[in-house]
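Lecture 7 notes: from sequence to structure.

We start with a single chain of 282 residues. Read the sequence below before looking at the structure.
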Amino acid sequence: MAKGLGKGIGALFPGESLEHSGQVEEIQLDLIVANPFQPRKIFDEESLQELADSIKEHGILQPIAVRKKARKFEIVAGERRYRACLLAGLEVIPVIIKELTDAQMMELAILENLQREDLTVIEEAEAYQSLMENLHLTQEELSKRLGKSRPHIANHVRLLALPEDVRKLMNDGTLSMGQGRALLGLKNKRRISEVANKVINLGLNVRQVELLVQNLNEEVSRETIPPKKKDIFVTAKESQLRDYFGTNVQIKKTSNKGKIEIEFYSEDDLERILEILNIQEE
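Now the structure, written as tokens:
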């Protein structure tokens, strides 16, 4: 989960207080709509129900922030409280109306969630990416403005390179951030989804995923190394042996020693080759 920011909303909007400045008004709940720029996709149903029960008993202790949009009011901050109010069956809700641009709406929605640890690691990564793109910031600049280390931001943003199905597994908690980062190390990127499912099925921890990725990468390296050219003498002998045994034969020679590999494709094929060898020995 995202950790609280060292600086937060004030870093982008000095002096801005979302829910503690301005006049509190009460408006109909059916006039309120979700923030179209909300980065948070997952809301814990059990936690929402607990908040709804608390609201039924104690009321809403803090108004939500909204902005007027045509005949409706879009949520700027407080969507979790809004959803809990729907569950509690309220008809009106206290709000503070703010005047904000679309860009400010997006930025504040992201920062509110980052500050309150409400995002999954993928949602947090998408939030950082969105802020950098829309505010035209580098990772270093965003790091300074939010009070987060640049490696922290970079490690999250890198996760967006994972395939969509793997990001979903991270979003629902099936894969951890450490496992996701390890999967990014695969040289053959097309195998990431396949390996992710293997990690889940085998219940591998982060260290085991790292070792699996290392082994798979070594296999890729071996496959891409071109085989050494055999000398003409060895190639000719291999050809003679293939004709003699009627199957694939390879001579593997190093310095003054080596080995001969004779392939067989069934038990009957093995018996056939053994009979040839017995005849040869006689």
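Residues 67 and 99 are 6 Å apart (CA to CA). Keep this in mind for problem set 3.
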